[in-house]
Amino acid sequence: MMSVTDPALCRRTTLRYTALILGLSCYAPFVDLTNTWFALESLPLNGYFLYLAWKFYKESDSANSRKLFRFSLIQLPALMLLMLINKKKQSNVEDGTLQPV
């Protein structure tokens, strides 16, 4: 609906949130969600996603929007899979149920 009522807002929002995904993926190791490899492995994936969003921002024709949409169908599950593979094990030392990492 946003693309019909305000196409410029749609382009800005797409670019903004794509850049945010890249930033959050690089930030995940610093808050102990993942290891450093996640940031390195997800960088090409998120970089290409940001590139496609930039192309859509500059020229929002149907070809660019389709490329961006189709890549998002691959990128988002791949990002979640990388996060699952590279997650850090959490420990609960207070309960004594898990050993410290």
TrEMBL record:
Transmembrane segments: 14-31, 68-85
GO annotation, biological process: heme A biosynthetic process
InterPro entries linked: Protohaem_IX_farnesylTrfase
Keyword list, A-Z: Membrane, Transferase, Transmembrane, Transmembrane helix
PANTHER family: PROTOHEME IX FARNESYLTRANSFERASE, MITOCHONDRIAL
A GO MF label: protoheme IX farnesyltransferase activity
Record keyword Transferase present: yes
Name the UniProt record assigns to this protein: Uncharacterized protein
Domain of life: Eukaryota
GO CC list: membrane; mitochondrion
